[in-house]
Design brief:
The chain is mainly alpha-helical and about 150 residues long. About 45% of the residues lie in helices and about 5% in strands. A two-stranded antiparallel sheet has the order 1-2.
Length: about 150
């Protein structure tokens, strides 16, 4: 067959686009959108479909080289998609191993009383922060900010 009659291997390009979509959809873990529990399954499904399409496209390129092109790009894309699928499956499994924080207060629940030092080194308790100042109404809430890291 002449080089003009060789077809583009669309499955390789669709699989590559789905691989990119699977990587970009990883960012949906950190959003506050309704239905957030669906996103891990979406990432996994996109990666699996991408690997399947790329594998079919790669098999086409190697079994029918006179009809389809894409041996090199298909091989690289399939390898990339398999690495991303392995990463996605690993993250999918590892995220589920995080233990639940049973002792942590729930949203809206009153935190237990504690004492910490403020920015001036003075000890302050939660009950002090929630007590009414002289001649004023007691505050309704206190915002606690925890910084992770080292100073």
């Amino acid at each position: 067959m002449s080089p003009q009659n060789i077809r583009r291997n669309k499955l390789i390009w669709i699989g590559l686009l789905l691989t990119i979509a699977a990587v970009l959809s990883q960012g949906l873990y950190f959003t506050r959108l309704p239905g957030q529990h669906v996103f891990p399954w979406l990432n996994l499904a996109l990666a699996i479909v991408a690997v399947i399409l790329l594998t079919i496209g790669l098999l086409r390129a190697f079994r029918q080289p006179d009809l389809y092109r894409g041996k090199i790009s298909g091989s690289i894309s399939t390898l990339l998609a398999v690495v991303i699928l392995i990463f996605t499956v690993t993250m999918f499994v590892d995220v589920r191993k995080v233990p639940a924080s049973a002792g942590a207060p729930k949203v809206g629940q009153k935190a237990p009383d504690f004492m910490l030092s403020d920015i001036h080194g003075q000890n302050v308790s939660l009950s002090q922060l929630l007590s009414s100042p002289e001649g004023g109404a007691p505050p309704k809430a206190t915002l606690l900010v925890f910084y992770r890291g080292y100073w």
